[in-house]
Amino acid sequence: MDLLKEILITFSSKKKKEFEKFLVRKRPSDDRRDITVLDELFQYYNSLEK
Fold first, then answer.
1. Cβ contacts of residue 4 below 8 Å, gap of 6+?
2. How many structural domains is the chain composed of?
3. Confidence at residue 50, expressed as pLDDT on a 0 to 100 scale
């Protein structure tokens, strides 16, 4: 989990969007819980940094 936190903290908003697009291309689906979790963690970790 710490590695995931480090990765998400280093992502800019633009890089995060690019990564999400990459994930969606690999496995398109309407229900993408992984993208939702990624977004929630990104917001949470970045709010802690400020």
1. 41
2. 1
3. 60
